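Lecture notes, unit on protein representations.

Consider one protein chain, 83 amino acids long.
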Amino acid sequence: MSKQAEAVQEKEARITKADGEYQASKKFAEAAQLYKGSPEALRLRELQTYQEIGTEHNTLMMVIPASMANPDGSWVLPIVITS
């Protein structure tokens, strides 16, 4: 009898998990459509994700724009010369 109850609980857990996955996939599809129309929003979400990863792993993450690096890997440092 206890094995039967355990099997029922496991079945319900799998159904609940599958339903959650289905709902999440629908939300991801909706978000993809929104981001498709707004590259700026996608970039902001990307930066937010970096922040969350850094916080979660107690790590400092620095995002360096591609415009600050040369193809050979050297840095481009803007120098302002005033007269």
